[in-house]
Design goal:
8 helices; 7 strands; single chain
Length: about 250
């Protein structure tokens, strides 16, 4: 089973922390050259330092995935720096609501859709164009279990992640004969800053969320990264259009 990425170039968006950073490091351990992007330059550059400490080549590119000109330039910079782009992990995303649908402000809805849906669409738009002209590649998008089931008090977030899965499946069908695989990873609750913010907003939900997972705990970023690396690798060469759960059994309940 080939999980190596020697001589391959991988782009990770939202790479300044959490699942993005864990995935950038996992790709580096597997031999990849890694381009890290984030709006937060300090966080993104720290990820690059950690990647380089593993002996891998890395570069940071600051970009806002909601801006077409920045996304186009981001992909162009990766190709200019490394010579090509083989794999992309479109991980940049946000959650900003902890309220029922009728109480959610329109500006929050628009912001979530801009980052989580338009951002993934823009990234794939320019990544697919390059990969289609250069022999293929692999793309993994971060969706969520909230893209497979309902998420109380997170309706806009859930809608955005359902959309990511729709984009993923459509692109997989459109570009399969171009030797491009497109999959999504669907984490349950993961021990990242996003989870910390949710608990801070409502301390009562921490124990309840933990117990909701049949394995009796929430996940770790490294566990999601392992799935991302597998989906991106030649070991998953016949896998495309998949919404792959990493959820401790949550969606099996």
């Amino acid at each position: 089973m080939n999980l190596r990425f020697d001589d391959k170039v991988v782009l990770v968006t939202g790479g300044g922390g959490g699942i993005g950073r864990a995935s950038a490091l996992a790709f580096a351990r597997a031999g990849a050259q890694v381009a890290v992007t984030d709006r937060d330059a300090q966080a993104g550059e720290e990820t690059v330092r950690q990647v380089q400490a593993l002996g891998a080549q890395a570069v940071f590119i600051q970009a806002d995935v909601t801006q077409a000109t920045q996304v186009q330039a981001m992909v162009a910079q990766v190709v200019s720096h490394f010579g090509r782009l083989d794999c992309a992990f479109n991980n940049a995303g946000i959650e900003e609501e902890h309220m029922r649908l009728a109480d959610c402000d329109e500006s929050i809805f628009d912001r979530i859709m801009a980052v989580n849906v338009k951002g993934v669409w823009l990234c794939m738009k320019y990544q697919l164009a390059h990969m289609a002209q250069n022999g293929g590649g692999s793309i993994v998008n971060t969706a969520s279990v909230a893209g497979l089931i309902g998420a109380p008090k997170m309706a806009a977030y859930s809608a955005s992640k359902h959309a990511v899965i729709g984009l993923t499946k459509s692109a997989a069908v459109e570009y399969g004969r171009k030797k491009i695989r497109v999959n999504a990873v669907c984490p349950a609750v993961i021990n990242t800053e996003m989870f910390v913010r949710a608990v801070q907003a409502d301390p009562k939900i921490g124990p309840a969320i933990t117990q909701a997972h049949p394995v009796g705990r929430i996940g770790e970023a490294d566990e999601v990264a392992a799935a991302v690396v597998w989906l991106s690798s030649d070991a998953a060469s016949f896998v495309t259009g998949l919404a792959h759960t990493v959820d401790g059994g949550l969606t099996s309940v």
